[in-house]
């Protein structure tokens, strides 16, 4: 009974500390991100570490020579309840590589919807930390995520892997997470933007469909808007935050088409957002409007094949899970200091003009551990 009371007091203290952290970080919530090239200029030693690590990720698994003394505990908190299969494939490739490396592990996974389940994610974080994992895999998008992560960094344990972010935060530069891992949102968006703007003749109206206020919208939507602003003939006529909800994207698209029947492009910040916009375009027989996806998962590839989407940035998806597993392995053999601060996976542009053979080749690379999408 006494032990329960001690644990209860500790939990209460941790909760109070968390709330104080929320208040203290409010003014810093819009913390600056450091682009990869700028980060490497500031930390040139990372260049060689990243190159060596990329070789590990691309290569075959090298199993541990001897088993660790105890099982590695890993807690994963993902916004995986969405049409995009990125998060589910991340888990699948992570576990597949851990098993190939013969790393003994215990995994606790917590899933939620993106953006709208922030309170649930906070509770999941508390539950995960009470389990005392060796590693916590989390993401960063909305302001509350920033505050949750700061709590973990302040505690100093577990080792933190930040998924789906490859632009380190300046505020954490002196004490970074164990690993930033994912795919460069800005790089992928530039590929999409350059193709769409050229196809549109560098003129015309476009609709911006953001995700939620936060990192993804800033890196993707902000990058597209900046690229579009370079061309005087391109005009943003509407912008909506959708919270990643396809129904909100659908409604926003219908409203914009009604107000601007000469709409030429829609930039969608995520898979679910793109699919919601596509439903509106189909219903109004407006597939002439250029529409992108982001990520190149199974749902997007199907929409591309059906002629609904025009372009997407396809992540070589499973490399993110492999990278996390390789980082864990390196730490187990006392090579944790050789793990780079960040890993940014490869991105390929796929358009409605890309051949089916080329798409199949990319699928085999992207889904090498999580499995190819089912073919009709």
From TrEMBL:
Q: Which family does it belong to?
A: Belongs to the bacterial solute-binding protein 2 family.
Task: Report the protein name in the record.
Answer: Autoinducer 2-binding periplasmic protein LuxP
Q: What PANTHER family is this protein classified in? A: D-ALLOSE-BINDING PERIPLASMIC PROTEIN-RELATED
GO CC annotation terms, alphabetical? cell envelope
Any single biological process term in GO: transmembrane transport
The upper taxonomy is:
Bacteria, Pseudomonadati, Pseudomonadota, Gammaproteobacteria, Oceanospirillales
The signal peptide stretch is: 1-26
Keywords in alphabetical order = Signal
Q: Where in the cell is it found?
A: Cell envelope
Q: Which InterPro entries match?
A: Peripla_BP_I, SBP_2_dom
Pfam families, per the entry: Peripla_BP_4
Q: What is its main location?
A: other
MF terms (GO), sorted A to Z: carbohydrate binding
Q: Which residues does the UniProt record annotate as the domain Periplasmic binding protein?
A: 74-331
């Amino acid at each position: 009974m006494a032990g329960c009371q001690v644990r209860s007091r500790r939990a209460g203290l941790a909760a109070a500390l968390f709330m104080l952290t929320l208040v203290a970080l409010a003014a810093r919530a819009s913390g600056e991100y450091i682009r990869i090239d700028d980060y490497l200029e500031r930390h040139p030693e990372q260049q060689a570490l990243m190159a060596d690590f990329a070789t590990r990720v691309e290569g075959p698994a090298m199993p541990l020579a001897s088993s660790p003394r105890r099982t590695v505990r890993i807690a994963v908190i993902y916004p995986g309840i969405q049409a995009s299969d990125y998060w589910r494939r991340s888990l699948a490739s992570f576990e597949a590589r851990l098993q190939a490396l013969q790393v003994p592990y215990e995994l606790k996974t917590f899933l939620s919807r993106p953006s709208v389940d922030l309170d649930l994610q906070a509770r999941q974080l508390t539950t995960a930390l009470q389990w005392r994992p060796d590693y916590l895999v989390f993401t960063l998008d909305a302001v509350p995520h920033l505050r949750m992560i700061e709590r973990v960094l302040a505690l100093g344990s577990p080792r933190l892997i930040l998924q789906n972010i490859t632009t380190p935060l300046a505020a954490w530069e002196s004490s970074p997470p164990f690993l930033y891992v994912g795919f460069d949102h800005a790089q992928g968006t530039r590929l999409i933007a350059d193709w769409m703007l050229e196809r549109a003749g560098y003129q015309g109206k476009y609709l911006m469909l953001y995700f939620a206020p936060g990192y993804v919208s800033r890196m993707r939507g902000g990058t597209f808007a900046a690229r579009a602003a370079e061309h005087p003939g391109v005009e943003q006529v509407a912008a909506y935050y959708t919270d990643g909800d396809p129904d909100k994207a659908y409604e926003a698209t219908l409203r914009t088409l009604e107000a601007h029947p000469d709409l030429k492009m829609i930039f969608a910040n995520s898979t679910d957002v793109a699919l919601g916009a596509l439903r509106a375009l189909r219903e109004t027989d407006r597939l002439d409007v250029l529409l992108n996806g982001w990520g190149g998962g199974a749902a997007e590839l199907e929409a591309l094949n059906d002629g609904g989407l025009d372009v997407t940035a396809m992540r070589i998806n499973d490399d993110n899970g492999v990278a996390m597993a390789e980082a864990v392995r390196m730490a187990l053999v006392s090579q944790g200091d050789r793990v780079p601060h960040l890993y940014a996976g490869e991105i390929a542009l796929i358009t409605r003009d890309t051949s089916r053979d080329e798409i199949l080749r990319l699928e085999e690379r992207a889904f090498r551990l999580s499995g190819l999408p089912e073919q009709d």
